[in-house]
């Protein structure tokens, strides 16, 4: 009797094992909890975590924070009359994805695309071709919780930007379509601040409306979304409607999270591709700061005036401002910071490095050029348009001097 080799036995066992396991890794498990209710609400669990994430990002450029959690609560009762306002599911927002949980069990993850860029804006105004094609912008991707395989895609229409299509990645079939609606009444409510979006969304399957999503905002509560679906909606359609609701919660109800996500991805790209020059004020570490001596929360004294000031200072990032000084032999010091107003930021070049009696100015730093030659090159940064100093610099410093002379009711102890 012929004996099979060990490798052949292992191969046959692996094939049998993959035949059983592979189908489980290419489909999402049903969520029976959603089948018991017709109305749910997506709301933020703890607004303090959101505020802390924004604070860490704005003040320190941090992108690592505790996940921001959202709750999916029942708006109606089940067949037994129970479950109203009960937490059915939870979702946690990370900089890379949104993870949906049932208790401690991962149900799926949602990868969001970046906010609308130039390529997406161009796609929106294309009128030729079909409504949905391979070049249509992808709003989000729904992935398997274990394998990470892409299960569904939310694709935006090119001809009609107010429409989206949710397709299956495995069978490439159209699961449902989402369409945005609006009216004068909703636009008035949005303009008055009663709702955060002027439109609501309907989900259709085979020409029948199976679900609707409404933005809502109470007077003393945070932004939230209300979902309701018909009794004929399958469990898969309910889950897809919930995924689209979570996407719109981040994009519309709390857009600051989307901005943090975008900056985190750009920082990740700069780590793997350090040749990329940062083009934003936040989310990317300063590359040329090590070439200067930094005095934080300080401004030059009133008697020291710059010889050059950036014209469009909002476009002047920290690195671009320092690069302008590095490439100018007359520059000895830089003042860069957040000043508010119409200019938002300021970038000033000084021909002398006089740091005697500096002004205390929050979010404004003095950078003194080091005498030793810097190892980092400043040639890869886009040059700034500079102009001669005007009265705005002196007016800003005088404003802080007047603040110093005012009595501070909290300055005790």
Walkthrough of the structure:
27% of the residues lie in helices and 28% in strands. It has 9 helices and 20 strands. The chain has helices at residues 6-21, 32-35, 47-60, 118-124, 184-192, 235-253, 255-272, 318-326, 391-405, and strands at 39-44, 68-74, 87-93, 98-102, 105-112, 138-143, 150-156, 163-168, 174-182, 199-205, 208-216, 224-229, 292-295, 298-299, 308-310, 333-340, 344-350, 359-360, 364-369, 386-387. The strands form 3 sheets. A 12-stranded antiparallel barrel has the order 1-2-3-4-5-6-7-8-9-10-11-12. Helix 6 crosses helix 7. The radius of gyration is 28 Å and the shape is elongated. Residues 289-374 form the Apple domain.
Summarize the structure.
This is Apple domain-containing protein. The chain is of the alpha+beta class and 413 residues long.
Number of strands: 20
Report how far apart the termini are: 95 Å
How are the strands ordered across the major sheet? 1-2-3-4-5-6-7-8-9-10-11-12
Q: Please report the number of helical segments.
A: 9
Tell me the series of helices and strands, N- to C-terminal: HHEHEEEEHEEEEHEEEHHEEEHEEEEEH
Using only C-alpha atoms, the radius of gyration works out to 28 Å
- Helix content, binned percent: 25-40%
Q: Assign an overall shape.
A: elongated
User: Which sheet architecture does the biggest sheet show?
Assistant: 12 strands, antiparallel, barrel
What share of the residues does DSSP label as strand, in percent? 25-35%
Task: Quote the average pLDDT.
Answer: 80
- Low-pLDDT parts are 116-130
